[in-house]
Amino acid sequence: MASVGFIGLGAMGGRLAARLLSAGHEVHGYNRSKGKAAELIANGLIWYQNPREVASAADVTISMVSDDEALERISFGPDGILAGLSSGKVYVDMSTVSPEASVQLAERVSELGAQMLDAPVSGSVPQAETGTLTIMVGGEPGAFAVAEPILAALGSKVVRVGGNGKGLLLKLAINISLAAQIIAFSEGLVLAERGGIDPKLAAQVMAESPIGSPMLKARVPLILDLPAQAWFDVALLHKDVRLALKAAHDLQTLVPSAQVADAILGTAGLLGYAHRDVAVVHRVLARHAPEAATLLERQGQALDV
Q1: b/e for 230-262, b at 16 or more Cβ within 10 A?
Q2: How do residues 25-38 score in pLDDT, each as one tens digit?
Q3: Residue 277 pLDDT > 70, yes or no?
Q4: With 4 labelled, which of 56, 61, 240, 259 sits at a CA distance of 20 to 30 A?
């Protein structure tokens, strides 16, 4: 089996690295905080001091970090991933970052004789633990052929959707819908509550109706009882929506629901909920409707409260 490097061992990355270890891969790893990797190291992960050492040791290097800035931090410089890549190696970035940043990095990787894929995921912590993520991949077919068996241990659906950056574009398209679903479900639930319907009963019926996507069904318990630890926090979804808005601007595409999501998620962040699960949108609409209305109005969208 190919040796795999994994850089970024947070809530999602750590669980994916654990699945690769369980599948029998030799896994080389790095994270800014070594403490987060303690259990993985105990289970066989080979620890390195920087991304360069990981990329040098592995046949296929995977990264999963939070944003463009974090990707730049692990990729460039004397201890970055690029410094450890060489001809024939494959680098797979599973972060959700801007397509532009990913394409530019892929060009740098190509100059080294290596190949890069963008492979963002759709799904949260439960899907990462069970290996049932959907993984959208952008890049060359040859690199995909090398990485696909590894990614198959992490996702139940692994699909190459086009060249570099296209996996990320599709992920942003998906997250527009994710944000819109959370908002629509939450506002419908608040409406039912205000009308005197028991919220648990309303949420159950709504989730079992035709609007109940798998994502919404999984989040109903979180909406009713907000967890301390987020599966997918507001700040990350807001970042993705902002990236989608930028892509839509570049492609001259109208995305009204993304604009509303930008306002609602921005309000949630300003109210101190940035690192709570996106299920907190229900609380924002139930308890902070005037603040949300004000932000929407600033963007030229009228909302009656």
Answers
A1: bbbbbbbbbbbbbbbbebbeeeeeebebbbbbb
A2: 999 999 999 999 99
A3: yes
A4: 240
pLDDT on residue 109: 98
pLDDT in tens, 135-177: 999 999 999 999 999 999 999 999 999 999 999 999 999 999 9
Under the banding of pLDDT at 50, 70 and 90, the label for residue 303 is very low
Specify whether the CB–CB gap between 196 and 295 falls below 8 A: no
Among 77, 116, 70, CA closest to 95: 70
Residue 99: pLDDT band with limits 50, 70, 90: very high
The stretch 114-133 carries a mean pLDDT of 96
Indicate the DSSP class of residue 118. Answer: E
Over the range 279-296, which residues count as b (16 or more CB within 10 Å of their CB) and which as e? bbbbbbbeebbeebbebb
How many Cβ atoms are within 10 Å of 229's Cβ, its own excluded? 10
Distance, in Å, from the CA atom of 266 to the CA atom of 211, rounded to the nearest integer, reads 25
Across residues 253-271, what is the average pLDDT? 92
Cβ neighbours of 112 (radius 10 Å): 17
Task: Give the residue carrying structure tokens 């963007």.
Answer: 299
Amino acid identity for residue 26 in this structure:
E
Q: Tokens representing 260?
A: 């509303």
* CA angle, residues 234, 246, 175, in degrees to nearest 5: 40
The string of DSSP codes covering 13-71 is HHHHHHHHHHTT--EEEE-SSGGGGHHHHHTTPEE-SSHHHHHHH-SEEEE--SSHHHH
Q: For 157, list phi and psi in degrees, rounded to 5.
A: -135, 115
CB atoms within 10 A of CB 303: 14
